[in-house]
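User: Protein folding is very new to me. Would you mind checking the protein record under this note? It all follows right here:
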Amino acid sequence: MHFSLTFLLCLSLAVLVTGKKKKEESQEEDSDDFVEMTHKARFYIKIGDKEMGDFIVGLFGKVVPKTVKNFISLVEGYETETGEVLTYQGSKFHRILKEFAIQAGDFEFGNGTGGRSIYGKKFPDENFKLKFYGPGWVAMANSGRDTNGSQFFITLRHTKWLDGKHVVFGKVVHGMNVIRWIEMTKTKSVDGQPVEDVVITKCDILGVLEQDKWAWFDITIGGVYAGRVVIGVFARTVPKTAKNFLHLASGKPDVTYKGTKFHRIKPNFLIQGGDIVNGDGSGGRSIYGNKFPDENFDLHHYGAGWVAMANSGKDTNASQFYITLKKTNWLDGKHVVFGKVLHGMKTLRKIELTQTDEKDRPVQAVVIVDCGVDSVERPFAVQRAPAEEND
């Protein structure tokens, strides 16, 4: 029978999934069995005028990475190249089928006829490795094979007849009571349209990223001291990229960022530096030689203050880097993100306000007059969010 349905990031969290029906059908809350969860998404729900609390979905990014990337981007809010923001926030659960499933994700029309992915309108089924083991499993809604967009559903019971027809990508790990409150909402048609609006008032990605080293830059603008910028580096996530950056930031005389300039300033976008060869954006080299490959794209451009490798195309990383001044998720998958500003966003905003010429070069020199690297005894966590502006 075919049925169609229209950071804090815990990088080391392991949640196991058992295939035993007896155990799984009885579970309404946190589960610990054997597929690694890579992310957690939180949704705040309002039914009519009543705030119902939140539920959290654990996501299986290693099993279905493309599907999870789409979901995470829509939870966080995905800005297209035209400036349009695609997001689940403010959208509704438009379909409630008691003892079966609840469905949401149509942020276009709110009735199950719309929705689209970050990849365009639709994208193919990634795989069917995960199954519908019981209540609380989360999968892509579709209108047939390879028609995934933004709509998703959450099961209210064991629905094994959907296995192989819908891509499962997550599981509710907290808040099944909220899911049950949604299930109990009165509907006004056989299609399951709720009488009262069931709204996602807010959604975000819970997560932490561990950092065990940071680099600091002392900056001058036109010869006047502007402040210090401290960048936490994700050496565990991108060790080779981190090693290159930290060596250049250490101030060692062989190859160093000390004395180099931020040669490119684009307000409300990014500032760029790190050309240790020519100082104008035309040069640079790494500690591995001239260029080195993209390590991975596990980290994204989550907001202002995220630090990534500048490049001239795939696998062309050297010494140049940039710091975002806003969320720039269209750069995800194109540049290796390796750090986040921990302190000094006010200094970066001063740089952002510096006058530039027609080629985005600052009229007054913006110079890293000193730099260094510090380590901590224990890794610390940062949120997958914009850097703090009030530092």
About this structure: The helical segments are 21-25, 65-76, 176-183, 239-249, 345-352.
